[in-house]
Amino acid sequence: MNAKRADKIATGVIYAISGIVALILIAMLAFILIRGVPNLSWHFLTSPARAFEAGGGIGIQLFNSFYLLILAMIISFPIALGAAIYLNEYSKKGKFTTVVRTAIEILSSLPSVVVGLFGFLIFVVQFHLGFSILSGAIALTFFNLPLLTRSIETSLAQIPNLQREAGSALGLSRWETVIHIILPAAVPSIVTGVVLSAGRVFGEAAALIYTAGQSAPALNFADWNPFNISSPLNPMRPAETLAVHIWKINSEGIMPDANAVSAGASAVLIIVVLLFNLSARKIGAQLYKKLTSA
Amino acid sequence: MDNITQKLMQKSESTKKDSLGRAVSLAALSLIVIVVISIFAFVMSRGLSTFFHDGVHVKDFLFGSTWNPSVVNPQTKQPYIGALPMIFGSFLVTFLAAIVATPFAIGTSLFMTEIAQKRGTKIMQPIIELLVGIPSVVYGFIGLTVVVPFIRSVFGGSGFGILSGTIVLFVMVLPTITSMTVDTLKSVPRHYRESALAIGATRWQMIYKVVLRAATPGILTAIVFGMARAFGEALAVQMVIGNAALMPHNLTSPASTLTSILTMGIGNTVMGSLQNDVLWTLAMILLLMSLVFNLVVRAIGRRGEMK
Amino acid sequence: MVNNIELKPASEFITENMPERYIYDLSAGDHEIAISTKDLQVSYGQNLALSEGDLSFERYKITSLIGASGSGKSTFLRSLNRMNDSVATVKGNIMYRGVDINTKAIDVYEMRRHIGMVFQRPNPFAKSIYNNITFALTQRGQYTKQELDEIVETSLKQAALWDQVKDELDKSALALSGGQAQRLVIARALALKPDILLLDEPSSALDPISSAQVEDTLLKLKDQYTIIIVTHNMQQAARISDYTAFFHMGKVIEYDLTRKIFTRPKVALTNDYISGNFG
After folding, report:
1. Across chain B, what does the average pLDDT equal?
2. What letter does residue C7 receive in the DSSP assignment?
3. At what angle do helices A3-36 and B84-110 cross, to 10 degrees?
4. What does the pLDDT look like over B169-204, one tens digit per residue?
């Protein structure tokens, strides 16, 4: 076989492979949306799930997913921000930095089920928090921290050193320079990173099944006192999320319309995650524009 | 001393703020390190109690092929705690998924970096990003409603098993391997390609003999990362593999992985019992394997640097 | 006022017995010294970047530091307000207002408010023009809106930028042209009312017109500020400075009145450099 022919064949194969990959994604999206979207209705999105009969919704799970996401972000963002600031602005090359970076790398590669089990062991069992939003939010924090830290660190590193020098030359300390000059300039790219990580957190289930739990007790959406047990804001109640719900009804399968509910729930999950992913860069770009023109 | 000189010798507001800020950010960083250390300490201590507290032999655990911790073997007076089926299952789906995904990942990456740079990146980049973004339970659900029935109708049986697990994992690790391979290929210097083409190589010869060769360490790293993801993936696999703690006799018989037995079992056992301890030992293996994958990546990186 | 010095050809001056170094002794005459260095040594790791740098700078004068790249002139300048602290080891004394500011006891942040610095590339903050100037002030003190407005106006006027930006103070500073941005950065430094202004090749990234504007600005500032400027442009050094120090391979080779250095240098090496034989 001559070289020209091999070249043609190889090119064809590469085209075919890429086509197949594209097809896989399109087929999956089409499958979820075609199967799922017809099930979506206001009733489906707002009413509670039913375990043994058809016609249940995903209202509570949807709320839980967002609530957990927000709590997890509130806990993890300041920690990740602090860690990223130290790594990018203060740390010098040395043993300590190497150890820390290795630890973060290891945490980011741990299976999320292990992170969830650790959360279960410490918070659910040892600290007696039980299956609760709080346990779940902490587990999600552990899951989220390494990637969020790295993404914020990258955002900070993109701000040219000229800005740090400018701050120092005016008698501002490193901290003042970082907080008032570097961070504001890095906001667009930090926001992009945060929204992307929100997408990941929103779809996570393995870290939650043994921390936030697999049940969604009825909520009273008129009661916003976080200390009441049926209040949606109560952080100590068990809270099955959308992703956990999909897993649960497919593994136990006692719900007669499990398939339709899963398809609908998957469609919602995918749509939300896609919205996060698509909007992440748009929001970042928008913020950047605002920052440089105003 | 005048006023300014005096001020020069005092700690300024800026200095105080800086010390505080530095301390706070260091605390945040240390917290992450503490979390990592505690994860290892707690999971390891629970996992090791199978051997130290319950007196199980490591050999029986790793190489025994019967898993039924709540039943005691009347002959040995030991419960059935052979974890080989799950260990084997985990490695098998991981390797198979990586083997299937690698050519697809390399092909797609070549399409994006060598064949159709502009158009390829424009089309494939979002596709790869979307694939990364799809939550694993959705992969599991699609596996359960599409892949499993398909396998059932083609090969008979239940449809659950290694093959279904492999197919689901293949799609899940594909974007991981692809995006990292793309980065590696992009980092191969332009002039490598130009000098190959200048001496009359065809594009494929240039790719095969120069680009892929130069990118080999990076591609291997990408594959190992993909394998780490596959090995640790829990729910999607658990939904399609059948969760039978048996040595698989073929690719379509129900099997299990470490993660699947773990997620199914941990809620149904009592803390501190042997049945519970052995599950933690499975978790410990997961933990150690993710460490091993990390070490392998580092080793590849180091060998790549030496060249 | 601009110096009118003609750069002379080299061969006229080369004589036998020229000294290897010549440092004009400022302390001898009736000069007020703003800042001076003694036994200053700067090293990056094992690399000694500056080995002999004993210089005194006269108050309300412009001093140029010239020399080839890598001669140590920028290193010297950046050591004066300890901008090198995080990257290099700086030994020796830097005397300012009777104290050695190169010691641990000195609060660097306070010190840099009195010894300001402007860099080669304009580096305005991603803030409005107004906030670029007021930011460092408000970080450390209480000012009324009126006081701030006044400071913004005076410093922008001093930097010869006021007329161009007075109607768009709320605009992002990133929208300014290079020359404008550099003058904003100078205004920003002036707002802190420093004693000494260090400038590290402030016009080398600018076009000739902007560069001339920056030079004009500096000449006007010299009544109130001590200015030390690193430049690789010898015409610039000759035009604006009162004193010039020539650096070579980490040492100060010659330091003298500018008009002497550029018309009749005492060291052969200086002569070679200013007549363009190397560098």
Report:
1. 90
2. P
3. 120
4. 999 999 999 999 999 999 999 888 889 888 888 889
Question: Measured between CB atoms, does A162 come within 8 Å of chain C?
Answer: yes
Alpha-carbon distance values, A232 to A239, A241, C98 (Å): 10, 13, 67
Helix H segments across A52-160?
A: 59-85, 95-109, 112-119, 133-158
Task: Identify the residue among A25, A34, A252 best suited for mutation to test binding to B, counting B beta carbons within 10 A and taking the highest.
Answer: A25
Average predicted confidence (pLDDT) for chain A: 89
Contacts of A291 in chain C (CB under 8 A): 126, 172
Model confidence pLDDT, tens digit, residues A37-58 = 898 888 888 888 877 777 778 8
DSSP at C116? E
Mean pLDDT of A264-274: 92
- Measured between CA atoms, the residue of chain B closest to residue C106 is B9
Contact residues, chain B, for A28 at CB < 8 Å = 134, 142, 171
| Chain A contact present for C111, CB below 8 A | yes
Q: How far is B66 from chain A (nearest CA, A)?
A: 23
ipTM of the complex: 0.91
Least confident of A63-72, A113-122, C203-212: C203-212
C 128-147 near B (Cβ less than 8 A) = 139-140
User: Is A82 strand, coil or helix?
Assistant: helix
Cα distance between residue C279 and residue C271, in whole Å = 12
User: Looking at residues C77-83, what average pLDDT do you find?
Assistant: 92
B224-238, C27-41, C259-273: range with highest mean pLDDT: B224-238
B9 Cβ under 8 Å from any chain C Cβ: yes
Q: What is the pLDDT of residue B217?
A: 92
The reply to whether residue B17 touches residue A121, judged by beta carbons under 8 angstroms, is no
- pTM score > 0.80 for this model? yes
**DSSP-derived secondary structure letter, A93:** S
Q: Terminal CA-to-CA distance of chain A, rounded, Å?
A: 63
Contact C175 A185 (CB under 8 A): no
Do the Cβ atoms of B304 and B217 come closer than 8 Å? yes
Q: Which of A20, A21, A35 to mutate to test the interface with B (most CBs of B within 10 A)?
A: A21
Closest CA to B281 of B264, B252, B258, B249: B258
CA neighbor of A149 nearest in space, from A105, A201, A181: A105
Nearest CA in chain A to B233: A111
